[in-house]
């Protein structure tokens, strides 16, 4: 099955005042957000009626970096490919993560969004 994968912050979620892109129901969200951030992420997605499957970074919030988030996304794409999914595009806003994904998954098109609507660094999202 051909699907797209979406980053969360900066793609599906720009900020609390500006909604982001909306994935198709079959698409997946691969976020650099830690598994510890699942509750607030689920609240934000529910507010926007987004019910896609979400893959969280397995690292704790304080341990994750932009680089480790990029590797998590690439490894998740590889896992999905091993399950038979064809990831056509990954939509990303972080150039560091996009470069890592492209290096590890060269067969996936990277659609890079460029904007300053969201923070690229490790921040909490409790106010979403």
Task: Walk me through what this model shows.
The chain is α/β, with parallel strands linked by helices. The chain has one domain. Helices cover 29% and strands 26% of the residues. It has helices spanning 38-47, 66-82, 95-104; strands at residues 2-6, 13-15, 18-19, 28-34, 53-57, 86-92, 109-112. The strands form two sheets. A five-stranded parallel β-sheet has the order 5-4-1-6-7, covered by helices on one side. A two-stranded antiparallel ribbon has the order 2-3. 36% of the residues are buried. The model has no long low-confidence stretch (mean pLDDT 92).
The termini sit apart by: 32 Å
Total beta strands: 7
Q: How can the largest sheet be summarized?
A: 5 strands, parallel
Show unreliable segments.
none
Main structural class: alpha/beta
Helices, by number, come to 3
- The H-and-E topology, N to C, reads as EEEEHEHEHE
Q: Please tell me what the overall shape is.
A: globular
Sheet with most strands: strand arrangement: 5-4-1-6-7
Mean pLDDT: 92
Estimated helix fraction: 25-40%
Radius of gyration: 13 Å
Strand content: 25-35%
Domain tally: 1
